[in-house]
Structures are given as C-alpha cells and as structure tokens.
Request: fold
Amino acid sequence: MSTQQRIDQLVKGNPVVLFMKGTAQFPQCGFSGRAIQILKACGVGPLTTVNVLEDPEIRQGIKEYANWPTIPQLYIGGQFVGGSDIMMEMYEAGELQELVQSVKPAA
Reply:
C-alpha cells in the first residue's frame, strides 16, 4: 500500500484525525500542542492522532496529500480543515465546534 493510500485510509476511516508532531499526551511542538488544546476545548472524542515524527513517509506524504506545507493538519469527516492557525480562527468564530458536532454519532 502506498503512503497516499495509508493516509487516505486514516483520513476517511476516522471522524477526526490530527497529523501532528508527537502525541496528544506529549506534543513535540507548540503548534501541535495548541491544536490538541483546541480540539479538547471542542469536546472532540474519539480523536485519532498520527505522530509524523515516527514515520518519515507519512510526514512528507501528508504535506502532498492536502497540498499543505505545514504540520499539524486536521481532518474532520474526511475533509482537510487546516493547521493550528486556521483551527484557532475557526474555534474563536464557533465554526470548529459546529464542524466537530457534525461528525459526532448521535447519542
């Protein structure tokens, strides 16, 4: 399976996926840490995270997948949302919370 196919499976097989440096418990950069804090504030669960530092092919491939040069990258409902700056803008506007709610299973 190609790197792009692996990424595609992750993105389309999980409601919320964050490609980041480090883990949710131990982010390895400030932007990834901020992304996790924003998602927690939105009440995201379950959250799938992918530590790009553990897989150089994914680290490069994710940049090509969305044609977005930086990490972290957030995908909700199989769609690319953006990086931490876009996440913060959407959170402050209330848009990210709505998007997260749209992929939560009904209780």
